[in-house]
UniProtKB/TrEMBL annotation:
It comes from Erythroxylum novogranatense. Residues 59-69 have a biased composition (Polar residues). It comes from the Eukaryota. The lineage of its organism: Eukaryota, Viridiplantae, Streptophyta, Embryophyta, Tracheophyta. It is a multi-pass membrane protein. GO terms for molecular function: potassium:chloride symporter activity. This is Cation-chloride cotransporter 1.
Length: 982
């Protein structure tokens, strides 16, 4: 059998080409049973040789060659039954399916199946990522360690122990460490729930909480990283100037320790020196960042090794401090020092942190949380480089949590060691106590501190630009398009921008002022990660299957709560400012940003909420106080619209008029004539066009396209099945077929009557719009009155529609008039009083007018309105008489006594026809007399009389709407939609 032929007896549906699976297809090779006479090694060798090169042609043919370009020996000898066992189910070759695209590449284009007339071949290759890929150690663990072991540990940690004491310092480390550890667990769960692109926490938060939340928190986290870079640079410069005072350009500031028996001078560098050196260091680090991932990987160990060596020197110095005291008040490991330093000693300090009774800064536990928390941040350093990792699902959890545990353990041990090795005075005055006690070379500590802070700054300047570039590449905010980069390129423009922010913060020069700002942005990001995991874990959607199993929604909620608590503990003012900044970005993204559907957790939450709400609504009747109109709008019921126009332009305007303040749902439906199998693709295209139109008209609603043999069958299916529970449409809205006689569309009367009868059977209200072309939009203000001709009890639907019209800007200047049609022998005044009382109880303001009209008699009162109505009445009666004569002639020709209309028996009672015509004439003349200049007229819809031909009913309706420019013909249903009670 040739590759292009089909198996006998199997006929695929038109529009798709099926390709048989050939004998050497990879799927067949893997699924064929092992030949007993062939050894396993020989079989593997044969399969490998056949799988060296696979190319999919335009017709699905498989062209398989060996590595030497020769065809295999058993090219065509396999059994045909075995060859077609996949094709029988309409499957393409597994080679084609598995080779379509890499599921880890979100933006990879999905190649379409070859169709008739396509030429060439499609060769599928796995997309290639960056050449440089990092493992767990260099990609996650080392960057996290470098970010965590930063300036706070070396030049602030001993001071924190002296101020808070050992006990509260342990609480401080445990409190902050628990926050980052819980965040690391949440980060691990989200990062292992699928392939992860660049952007780190922004990517995770954005895909979990939506683009608006992701961009707002992502930009704040970017600012936090940029400011943190300045924090680390200032720490490195301050340490350098402490170690080498001669390098200072300006004179040193001398601060004396007050309230001590022997005041000692304390030297600290000036802010100008910090600014100048900080700018130089920042620019130097930017050159390293411009070198790319390769350069950073080479430099990172050079920064980390001295750091680890310096930590070892600190521990060695503490252990030998008791024998070889490096400085006064260094006691060595002493229980007495441990006891003396156990409790806290919060006091006033000057700007340099030196205790001073006249100082401006008072420290407490909350303030120390803000100062110390940057020492535990940095857990996102690995995830920030997610695009450069070999295996994000393995590296991020292991590397992040390992770095968190190691550093937290180090901090807890260091609290005891610092508290036991020196007096409180030394702890509070010696900002570089770590260098003072280090052994054997104290100068090595300065080198370690400088390289540690520079390494952390390097990681910040590396992660922040990549984070900004990832936000820009998602194309949510057009203002960020300047920072876009192609795959595999370095974010040079984003690096320049990050360096500019970093230099600006360096110019500030105050380390203690920058630290709380950084802390707020970090905590905001950590809270977003925890909330993302909490939402995803709580909803537990089928797509939530993280490889990291050690997580629970309660832990994520606890982590998010700790983040918020820490933010307010540090400073409620900084918290309010950071939340306000994130809210402003969120608002800006929601207005200016482009829509992005990432399948975020909020969509899942909305789905779960909708299901719960739908179940809670039940299937019982909705109380009138909770009733909302849910219109089912027939977009193209009578045709005569251009093919590229999915709906009449004024229908959406009218649908919005049926909602109060835009609340409510509309269902826009269009019926496509034809066979479903042939028109399914056309229906999908039409549904997209209709949905686009609805969005353009700012109408809350959904679009549906139904394929049916004809309009009547399609609508009958819609009215029975559309909607769920109490969210089914309750009002059918359509345009009045004014064109049926002018265009000679003889099929419209039957369809029109069938739709109305189906609505009556299905208990749906009906609103028919006459004069839709002249319906005003939201900017066309109307004046005059809204006139209601209230003839039958309709549950208050007509009254409610008039009130809804008044809530719209175009009709808010109008007033309502209610015309009650009464028999001549009825008490008009009593009826008027009853209606006024009823409207008052309904909280509706309207003028009530009672019209006495005897339905069985016509009194010609003269006037132009009556003459117009009489002219239309005479023409309608003449057409009906002609139609009855034709029916009788056809009945005589068929030799039957039954009159037939549209294929159905018709019981024509000419006296009853005259009655309908007279009643309609009287109502039309009354409308023309009282409401000719009204903004809109609402009148009750008469039901189609039984056994009357549809043609007669159309004549009645045409006479009713004659010469009325804008009319709503309304029929309620067997439910009240208004209530008198509160």
């Amino acid at each position: 059998m040739n590759n292009g032929e089909q198996e006998d007896g199997f006929h695929p549906s038109p529009g798709r080409k099926y390709r048989p699976v050939v004998d050497n297809d990879r799927a067949v090779l893997e699924m064929l049973p092992m030949d007993p006479g062939l050894s396993s090694s020989a079989s593997r060798a044969t399969n490998q040789s056949n799988l060296m090169k696979i190319k999919v042609g335009s017709q699905g043919n498989m062209d398989t060659r060996t590595s030497h370009g020769q065809a295999p020996a058993n090219g065509g000898g396999n059994d045909l039954t075995q060859e077609h066992k996949l094709e029988l189910f309409g499957f393409d070759s597994l080679v084609s399916i598995l080779g379509l695209r890499s599921m880890t590449e979100e933006e990879a284009a999905v190649p379409s199946s070859p169709r008739d007339g396509d030429d060439g071949s499609l060769t599928y290759e796995r997309p290639r990522g960056n050449d440089v890929k990092l493992g767990t150690m260099m990609g996650v663990f080392v960057p996290c360690i470098q970010n965590i072991l930063g300036i706070i540990y070396y030049i602030r940690f001993s001071w924190i122990v002296g101020m808070a004491g050992i006990g509260e310092s342990l609480m401080l480390v445990a409190f902050c460490g628990l926050c980052t550890f819980l965040t690391g667990i949440s980060l691990s769960a989200i990062a292992t729930n699928g392939a992860m692109k660049g952007g780190g926490p922004y990517y995770l938060i954005g895909r979990a909480l939506g683009p608006e939340v992701g961009v707002s928190i992502g930009l704040c986290f970017f600012l936090g990283n940029a400011v943190a870079g300045a924090l680390y640079v200032l720490g490195a410069v301050e340490t350098f100037l402490k170690a080498v005072p001669a390098a200072a350009i300006f004179s040193e500031t001398i601060t004396r320790v007050n309230n001590t028996a022997t005041p000692e001078p304390i030297q600290s560098p000036t802010s100008h020196d910090l600014q100048i050196y900080g700018i130089v260091v920042t620019i130097s680090l930017c050159f390293i960042v411009f070198g790319g991932v390769k350069m950073i990987n080479r430099v990172a160990p050079a920064f980390l090794i001295p750091v680890l060596f310096s930590v070892c020197c600190i521990f060695l110095g503490i252990s030998v401090a008791g024998k070889d005291k490096p400085a006064p008040e260094i006691t060595g490991l002493s229980l007495e020092s441990l006891k003396n330093n156990w409790s806290s000693d919060y006091q006033l300090t000057n700007d340099a942190g030196i205790p001073d009774p006249e100082g401006k800064n008072y420290w407490n536990f909350n303030a120390l949380v803000g100062l110390f928390f940057p020492a535990v941040t940095g857990i996102m350093a690995g995830s920030n480089r997610s695009a450069s990792l070999k295996d994000t699902q393995r590296s991020i959890p292991i590397g992040t949590l390992a770095a968190t545990v190691v550093t937290t353990t180090l901090y807890l041990g260091t609290v005891f060691l610092f508290g036991a090795v020196a007096t409180r005075k030394r702890l509070l005055t010696d900002r570089l106590l770590a260098a003072t006690i280090a052994w054997p070379f104290p100068a090595i500590i300065y080198v370690g501190i400088i390289l540690s802070t520079l390494g952390a700054a390097l990681q910040s300047l590396t992660g922040a630009p990549r984070l900004l570039a990832a936000i820009a590449n998602d194309d949510i905010l057009p203002i960020l398009n300047y920072f876009k980069i192609a795959d595999g390129q370095e974010p040079h423009i984003a690096t320049f921008f990050t360096a500019f922010i970093c230099i600006g913060c360096v110019i500030i020069g105050n380390l203690d002022l920058i630290s709380p700002t950084t802390t707020m942005f970090y905590l905001l990001c950590y809270a977003g990660v925890n909330l993302s995991c909490f939402l995803l874990d709580l909803l537990d959607a089928p797509s939530w299957r993280p490889r990291w199993k050690f997580h629970h929604w309660s832990l994520s909620l606890l982590g998010a709560s700790l983040c918020i608590v820490i933010m307010f503990l540090i400073s409620w003012s900084f918290t309010v400012v950071s939340l306000a900044l994130a809210s402003l970005i969120y608002y800006y993204v929601s207005i200016k940003g482009k829509a992005g559907d990432w399948g975020d957790g909020f969509k899942s939450a909305y789905f779960q909420l909708a299901l719960r709400s739908l179940r809670s609504l039940g299937a019982d009747q909705v109380h009138p106080k909770n009733w909302y109109p849910i219109p089912l709008i027939l977009c193209r019921p009578w045709g005569k619209l251009p093919e590229n126009v999915p709906c009449h332009p004024k229908l959406a305007d009218f649908a919005n008029c049926m909602k109060k303040k835009g609340r409510g749902m509309s269902i826009f439906v269009s019926i496509l004539d034809g066979d479903y199998h042939e028109c399914a693709e056309d229906a999908k295209v039409a549904c997209k066009q209709l949905a686009t139109y609805i969005d353009y008209k700012n109408c809350e609603g959904v679009a549906e396209i139904v394929v049916a043999p004809n309009m009547s069958e399609g609508f009958r299916g819609i009215v029975q099945t559309m909607g769920l529970g109490n969210l089914k449409p309750n009002i059918v809205v359509m345009r009045y077929p004014e064109i049926w006689r002018r265009e000679k569309l003889t099929e419209i009367p039957a369809t029109f009557v069938e739709i109305i009868n189906d609505c009556i059977v299905a208990n749906k209200a009906v609103v028919i719009v006459k004069g839709l072309d002249e319906w005003p939009n939201e900017y066309q203000r109307q004046y005059g009155t809204i006139d209601l001709y209230w003839i039958v009890r309709d549950g208050g639907l007509m009254l409610l529609l008039s009130q809804l019209l008044l809530t719209k800007e175009s009709f808010e200047s109008c007033k309502i008039q209610v015309f009650c049609i009464a028999e001549e022998d009825s008490d008009a005044e009593a009826l008027k009083a009853d209606v006024k009382k009823f409207l008052y109880d309904l909280r509706m303001q309207a003028e009530v007018i009672v019209i006495s009209m005897k339905t069985w008699d016509v009194q010609v009162e003269g006037g132009p309105q009556q003459e117009e109505s009489l002219g239309a009445f005479t023409a309608a009666r003449h057409r009906i008489s002609t139609y009855i004569s034709q029916m009788k002639e056809r009945a005589q020709a068929d030799e039957t006594t039954t009159l037939m209309a549209d294929g159905k028996p018709a019981d024509v009672n000419e006296q009853q026809v005259e009655k309908f015509l007279y009643t309609t004439l009287k109502l039309n003349s009354s409308i023309l007399r009282y409401s000719r200049m009204s903004a809109v007229v609402l009148v009750s819809l008469p039901p189609p009389p039984l056994s009357h031909p549809p043609y007669f009913y159309m004549e009645y309706m045409d006479l009713l709407v004659e010469n009325v420019p804008r009319m709503l013909i309304v029929r309620g249903y067997r439910r009240d939609v208004v209530t008198l009670f509160t």
